[in-house]
TrEMBL record, chains A, B:
Pfam family name, one: FAD-oxidase_C
Gene3D superfamilies given in the database record: 3.30.465.10, 3.30.70.2190, 3.30.70.2740, Uridine Diphospho-n-acetylenolpyruvylglucosamine Reductase, domain 2, Vanillyl-alcohol Oxidase, Chain A, domain 4
Keywords from the UniProt entry: FAD, Flavoprotein
Keyword Flavoprotein applies: yes
Domain of life the protein comes from: Bacteria
Transmembrane segments: none
Ranges for domain FAD-binding PCMH-type: 37-219
Family the UniProt entry places it in: Belongs to the FAD-binding oxidoreductase/transferase type 4 family.
Entry keyword annotation includes Cell membrane: no
InterPro entries for the chain: FAD-bd_oxidored_4_C, FAD-bd_PCMH, FAD-bd_PCMH-like_sf, FAD-bd_PCMH_sub1, FAD-bd_PCMH_sub2, FAD-linked_Oxase-like_C, FAD-oxidored/transferase_4, Oxid_FAD_bind_N
Listed name of the protein: FAD-binding oxidoreductase
Native source species: Mesobacterium hydrothermale
Amino acid sequence: MALAPAQDAFAQSLARHLPADTLRPAEPRYLEEPRGKWHGNAAWVALPRCTDDVATIIRACATARVGVIPYGGGTGLVAGQVKPDGPLPLILSLERMNKVLGVYPEENTLIAQAGAILADVQAAAADRNRLFPLSLASEGSARIGGLLGTNAGGVNVLRYGNARDLCLGLEAVLPDGQVHHGLKRLRKDNTGYDLRNLLIGAEGTLGVITAATLKLSPVPAAQGTAFLVVNDPAAALSLLSLARDHIGDGISAFELISGVGLDFLAEKLPDLRRPFPENPRWMVLIDLGLSLGQDPHTALENLFEAALAAGLVSDGLIAQSEAQRQDFWRVREDIPTANRMVGAIASHDISLPLGAVADFIATARERLKPLGPLRINCFGHLGDGNLHFNLFPPKGTARTAFLHLAEDGSRILHELVHATGGSISAEHGIGRLKASDLERYGDPAKLWAMRTIKTALDPLGIMNPGAVLRQTATT
Amino acid sequence: MALAPAQDAFAQSLARHLPADTLRPAEPRYLEEPRGKWHGNAAWVALPRCTDDVATIIRACATARVGVIPYGGGTGLVAGQVKPDGPLPLILSLERMNKVLGVYPEENTLIAQAGAILADVQAAAADRNRLFPLSLASEGSARIGGLLGTNAGGVNVLRYGNARDLCLGLEAVLPDGQVHHGLKRLRKDNTGYDLRNLLIGAEGTLGVITAATLKLSPVPAAQGTAFLVVNDPAAALSLLSLARDHIGDGISAFELISGVGLDFLAEKLPDLRRPFPENPRWMVLIDLGLSLGQDPHTALENLFEAALAAGLVSDGLIAQSEAQRQDFWRVREDIPTANRMVGAIASHDISLPLGAVADFIATARERLKPLGPLRINCFGHLGDGNLHFNLFPPKGTARTAFLHLAEDGSRILHELVHATGGSISAEHGIGRLKASDLERYGDPAKLWAMRTIKTALDPLGIMNPGAVLRQTATT
């Protein structure tokens, strides 16, 4: 049975069961996504103020069989938040449920509503001398519900894990409107199936996350950051191993940066201070957060000396001040900005077994050669085996002249990722962009289990229809 | 429809599809559990040598609608591995699938079959200078599949997480005999629902784990251990906070030990060297694992000085050698042994929000007083908020004279845990022992989701029937 559209009559009827101004016509901002490739189709947005209102909305959608798109900050990169076709869905934005409900510094926990913005959660933790370590480029607008729904990653996964690892409990509205009350502040709780982790990463297809208990960490007593020039990705991986031997758990981030990325920065953001007069072909940005009595500057110097002796690095810069640390990080964070200004033909968010990363980068380059003289910007969270492997037109040429290569390029790359035991979505999720890739590369038994669970928990198929799992023709 | 019993005819028919000697009559050891409170009922055990054989067995059980109990080391404490009544299940022991299939030190990963014994996995990691940090009393016999199936905890959860946090990928046979191939060696993989975490902690009720990719860690460069005498649990928690400020991530374990536990050791294991001439009322065992250039002895001395100055500790001992470190740990590890020799009336495996632990211990003692002069040994993984809160008869009295208080004692305690936002099973799981407690204290929406998932993935109800979720009268 097909879904019904969320048209005016439905919205007006639902509005009568909710406080004034909960339903509004959907402004254009709810229909856009950051890369501008997808355009959503929806007439109404619901803006609930509390969990009970969310439950009322979901129950009404179930009764009318109207699709619902849970909406956070709208920063997702796989079109999980925009549905371009089919019956109009209702957009359910959590933006008004944006409070930090409690901070428990002595337990290293914090409870936030799903609409809380990541930067606000970070600030609430910092106010009590604690760290909420999830950190990514869109932290000023991404919201906790969406970050959990997509199991977001970012730069600190190496040390602190991804969003999943930072969540201790959830409150959520299930597809029939039941409220799951699971906001426990426990480190250990082995009472039944892991519903929390099932909802995390389900991208709103199994329910709506309305609040979460999050895990905080001690603020490191001292931080240090360095750029280290490496010959190639293999040397970068050996450097990571060496750094672990030296510094153990103190490594917060270990990012690979390619010369192409630095060239893009020089081309598009020329005012940005680049670290080396000549752009090296490969470098690593390493970030340390150490405890009392440890000196990150000394640790980085010792690491640099050892890496130099081992022939792994040829040059390096250790940040001499917090301001310089921030400058170093700006370089990393502006690479996606420069990428967008140059204009990628195709972007990829892949992960690989660490031991396979160096060979993969070389092989992928070879396999892509027949497509023509594309520029490759390969960078990312090397410590996690997570690369953003993006294809660009040759310098001075128009992106449009090469767009026809996108499909072949992505296919070549994803086939190699699959053959290498990697993932075609390391941290961005599946959304609608990769739903058919998931069918192609996913484990058949896992896909069967996913479809079985989706049908069982959401038999009407109202929750974020078409995201993660494609719909059948009738819906 | 009721399950069919795994009788001789079924076993003989199944044996024809499997290599010789895969099916055997069930020896008594498969029908026992460590506390001797439950006795299993089964005639046959299957001992497959490979995943394909596991799939053959599960398919045959599905066809004949025979219940299957996935069996690891048999060390579980909640009767997940023994089914005392109903149609005879087939026991499916993974003990022959006990190999470490690969160690990848440069990636900090290891792949093991489900029947690999924890101590063997630890040793395989240590051989390559890596740490597999899962550590618990039964590590010499517990197997990886069971440890993951129950999401086991242990002494290093504070730093490294529980079994769930140490698993990157799974191979498993689903209830219809499909094999899920998910042995990826990836740190990040956001491709669909989290089937891995759904199988972990499901106690064999949603499928059989046959192999796992596990996460390794660097071996700490230096370790240090201390006993610190504290006035009460509140002081122990303040000490934990102070220790985190001083030592950050370097704290591997933080265990609370009560004077009652030390008295039991003195009574039942008098040859064991106790740390202090007079047993203190409360003490903490703290374990550090630090990286290169850090000295755990100095770190512990500094912590002790600071804690003394803050009035949190009154005495302390820092291990002066590795042998003394092992002696300190022996004290902790022999407490459950002494408990068993004294004979508990009722044992509990609870967790609480850290901020609520101290009040809980005091209140629980008050609430239990009306039952009579019971002795309480409250100890455990304080850093995780996980306490083992066990009730014993007064000294010199027979346990049997007090056993009638077990039910009331557990009820009083679990009601208080529930009211405090805690868990009635922190690390041991639900099994059959706590299935009715789960119904009483579990979140109704979560229970609905669990039953819905169980019915969808295992519609015949053959996987570990009656564990976690109670069966209906007909099965």
